[in-house]
Amino acid sequence: MSNQNNQILKNTNAQILDEFNASIMFDKELYAQDIKGSIAHSAMLCEQGILTKDEQEAIEKGLLQVKNEIESGEFKFSLVYEDIHMAVESRLTEIIGEPGKRLHTARSRNDQVATDFRLYVQEKSLSIKSQLKELVETFVNVASKHTKTLIPGMTHLQHAQPLNFGYHMLAYANMFKRDYERFESSYERNNYSPLGSAALAGTPHNINRDSTCEKLGFKAPTAHAMDTVSDRDFALEILFNISTSMMHISRIAEELITWSSYEFQFVRMSDEYATTSSIMPQKKNPDVPELLRGKTGRVYGNLISLFTVMKGLPLAYNKDTQEDKEGVFDSVKTIEISISILNEVIKTMIVNVDKMESACKIGHLSATDLADFLVQKKGMPFRTAYYITKDVVTCANSLNKDISELSIDEIRSANDELKEIDDEIVMYLDLRNSMNARTSFGGTSTQQTEIQIENFKKWLENN
């Protein structure tokens, strides 16, 4: 091979290696956090007499100029810089000269990236938490309008007992409330500053970690430098929190897809969130809920990916952790847009009350009420009442009726034990009465649902 070809191959390999090694094209997402951390670090160095006041002012002014250049699109990102930290520092030094070279005193890129990334995760935890609160409020508002609207409650996707639709919506409000609390808990647990940990063992410079901690809004400095620079638990937590929220989003998306089908027709989604078929003009496809359901797998993958990266790393920092960011950035963007879209889907959906209520007459939803009546009023063992109720269901099937539609004579004819049954059993089997009979705490009665709604409203006011 000629020298010229050898050189071309070396240049090609060098370019490939640069691309493989660099993170600048994705970690540029952290530019604002990097600059914020650097300003706090420079201010602390000045307070400690490590930088002069003029040097610190020049650094801060220069960093703000770099920030403006990035946000205006003037800044040109290049693989030459490898990562966002070197890109910002190099441009800063071009702008202000020698003082720019002093900025990195008493820190390492190890604690710098840990600080930047943690700031990003903390900020996103708060913003996602805020979105989840809005989503909870939307479900509560829908629930408030439907505390008397009957819908078949299901187990195993089979008709089980009558519920009100408001109660069903509150199940999702509870899920997303837990998600809100999960992000809140993670924020508190991870609100500690890595800055000052340096490479892995701290620094001999006379720094003040409490000062940078306060400037960046952290509760306190992290307690152990080696653990700090290698720790990505905070990133795993936000990925887990997002995955759990997306699982809840996927569950309501699945119900929306089912409910909007011809077989159910419980809800109709706004045309904005459904599309027509490319070949069948009569079809209206629930594309948006399907995408919400599908994107859940994407965020699961990001969580498992980072778990896999971290599982075999020796202390302290390793280059492997460069792979921690893209999955987090992707999952954050996915959850942000997913919550926003789901919120609008729920706000704009049309509830078909008549279809829901007519569906409650399929599957003998009030059968358990007959068994409960026999236990409470006749003192029967539940298992005996259960088998007697099965006979009544068989009778209803033979008459092509729902159990709630049977007359007292038809009920009495189903089993010898029922020949003297009181007339009031007919009232017990009424679907609306059945729903409202469930007055235990957390139950589906209109009364209990309205109590739950009021509790949610208080929670929304206080958070």
From TrEMBL:
Q: Which GO terms describe its cellular component?
A: cytosol
Q: In which pathway does it act?
A: Amino-acid biosynthesis; L-arginine biosynthesis; L-arginine from L-ornithine and carbamoyl phosphate: step 3/3
Q: Which GO terms describe its biological process?
A: L-arginine biosynthetic process via ornithine
Q: Which subcellular locations apply to this protein?
A: Cytoplasm
Catalytic reactions of this protein: 2-(N(omega)-L-arginino)succinate = fumarate + L-arginine
Pfam families from the entry?
ASL_C2, Lyase_1
Superkingdom of the organism of origin: Bacteria
Q: Where is the Fumarate lyase N-terminal domain?
A: 12-301
Query: Is Nucleotidyltransferase included in the keywords of this UniProt record?
Result: no
Taking every annotated instance into account, which residue ranges of this chain make up the domain Argininosuccinate lyase C-terminal? 365-436
- Where this protein primarily resides, as one coarse class? cytoplasm
Among its keywords, does the record have Protein transport?
no
Molecular function, one GO term:
argininosuccinate lyase activity
Where does the secretion signal sit in this chain?
none
Question: Which principal EC class is assigned to this enzyme?
Answer: lyase
Q: Which UniProt keywords apply?
A: Amino-acid biosynthesis, Arginine biosynthesis, Cytoplasm, Lyase
User: Into which family does the record put it?
Assistant: Belongs to the lyase 1 family. Argininosuccinate lyase subfamily.
**Sorted alphabetically, which NCBIfam families does this protein's record hold?**
argH
- Quote the protein name from its UniProt record: Argininosuccinate lyase
Organism, by scientific name, is Halarcobacter bivalviorum
Gene that produces this protein: argH
